[in-house]
UniProtKB/TrEMBL annotation:
The gene is nudF. Belongs to the Nudix hydrolase family. This is ADP-ribose pyrophosphatase. GO terms for biological process: nucleoside phosphate metabolic process; ribose phosphate metabolic process. Its cofactor is Mg(2+). Residues 40-171 form the Nudix hydrolase domain. One of its GO terms (molecular function) is pyrophosphatase activity. InterPro entries: Nudix_hydrolase, NUDIX_hydrolase-like_dom_sf, NUDIX_hydrolase_CS, NUDIX_hydrolase_dom. Keywords: Hydrolase. It comes from Virgibacillus oceani. It comes from the Bacteria. GO terms for cellular component: cytosol. Pfam families: NUDIX.
């Protein structure tokens, strides 16, 4: 592994935003030459696969400005400083869906875009949802609509590219695998 390692010579901080930080690292390559690496620093994120009592998956539909369109996704959100992923999962579930749970199962974690970002996404699942008595206020600039779909309906959304992001596609493949193992 060491033979592929790039050594950082210098870091130039470009932008420090609400969600991400951008920096440019000057690195020494394994062959001794130098290059620049544009890097997005991200605090990490959590997604949750919520399953209702009647075996439907709870999704949120929201507008994604970078894509200039809406996507249907599993609930997800950014880790807050010092927050454990399980806490983020429940918080996002409550804010985005109006459900809560006291029973989470860790599924996996993965880097979303390792070529330019350090974001680590954690995925949890629950099939023990409880409706909240009062809605929890989420982010002021976040607007979502809820959908509850069967796994077969979700697969149609994938085919139609209404579901078109990595975390949600992963969730659907994971649930499909669980179905096959029954």
């Amino acid at each position: 592994m060491k033979k592929l390692e790039e050594k950082t010579i210098n870091t130039e901080k470009i932008y420090n935003g609400k969600v991400v930080k951008l920096q440019v690292d000057e690195v020494t390559l394994p062959n001794g030459k130098t290059s620049a690496r544009e890097i997005i620093k991200h605090p990490g994120a959590v997604a949750i696969i919520p399953i209702t009592k009647d075996n439907k998956i709870v999704f949120v539909e929201q507008y994604r400005k970078p894509l200039e369109k809406t996507l249907v996704e599993i609930p997800a959100g950014k880790l807050e400083a010092g927050e454990k992923p399980e806490v983020t999962a429940v918080r996002e579930l409550e804010e985005e869906t109006g459900y809560t749970t006291s029973n989470l199962t860790y599924v996996t974690s993965f880097y979303t875009s390792p070529g330019f970002a350090d974001e680590l996404m954690y995925i949890y699942m629950t099939d023990q949802l409880e409706a909240l008595q009062e809605n929890v206020t989420g982010d002021d600039d976040e607007f979502v609509e809820l959908l509850e779909l069967t796994l077969d309906e979700a697969k149609i959304y994938v085919k139609d590219q209404r579901i078109h992001d990595a975390k949600t596609n992963y969730a659907i493949m994971y649930l499909e695998t669980l179905e096959m193992m029954k």
